[in-house]
Amino acid sequence: MKKYFAMIGLVLVTVIWGGGFVASDMALESLTPFQIITGRFFLASLLMGILSWKKLSSMTRDEIRAGILMGITLFAGFALQIVGLSYTTPSKNAFLTATNVVMVPFISFCFCHKKVGSRGIIGALLAVAGVGVLSLSGSFSLGLGDGLTLLCAVGFAFQIFLTGIFVKNLRAEILNFLQMLTAFVLSAFCMILCREFTVQADAKGWLSLLYLGVVSTTVCYLLQTTCQKYVEETKAAIILSMESVFGTLLSILILHERVTIRMIMGCIMIFAAVLISNSEPDHEASCGEDPAGKLQTEQNLSK
Fold first, then answer.
1. pLDDT band at 99 (very low <50, low <70, confident <90, very high)
2. What SS3 string covers 229-271?
């Protein structure tokens, strides 16, 4: 029963992230990219710090290492996505980011020797194809921005993978606070490096940033971390690919985008991917906690 509630929780995350597409579009009218991610991670760090205040004094070394590692991968995903977007189209940026769905099961296999089931592979490929139908049009060629976006997908894939592994043994609130704090520090450093000091946000920009920081980041990543205790990383990644579906639906409702056959087909393919992947039983992995209390995953990643 917990697994099904967790799956519903992950779907809720994708609905909120779908709204994040609209909020980001509004925020970019008056804020720079690094100002946006620095602001959203600052708000998330502050709120997660308040929520986990009583537990911070009992942080363990494993939690600190895991939280920082998750924060680095999360920042890498967001930063490379933003920089990549400067050199490619939004549609290709969205499609290539979604390839993290295919990467997660193979990362799990490489680091945890977790079996990649046939339905999981089919679901992952179908999800990416669905995002492609939803996002892409015209010819497809790879350039600098596309390469950076592929690296961003690697960052998001590792973030999903690490979340699924670490949350089995460590406290979700602590992991999330450290993850957000790490991402905030790295984002602020990049904002300073790019000399994005002047803030000229209007009311719509501030409200959009508030949504991104409080709802799309704090609420969503806490919910994602908690739900991934009960859902395999590969299945979680495929469910999270529904972000593009809800992003499209909310763009139609709020930004009045025109509905097309491609949109309908893409959404159907992604829904089918979720159903196919979740019809497969869970597979055991060799990642876990050993008698000494150390995570084997950390040992593998440090080699």
1. confident
2. CCCCHHHHHHHHCCHHHHHHHHHHHHCCCCCCHHHHHHHHHHH
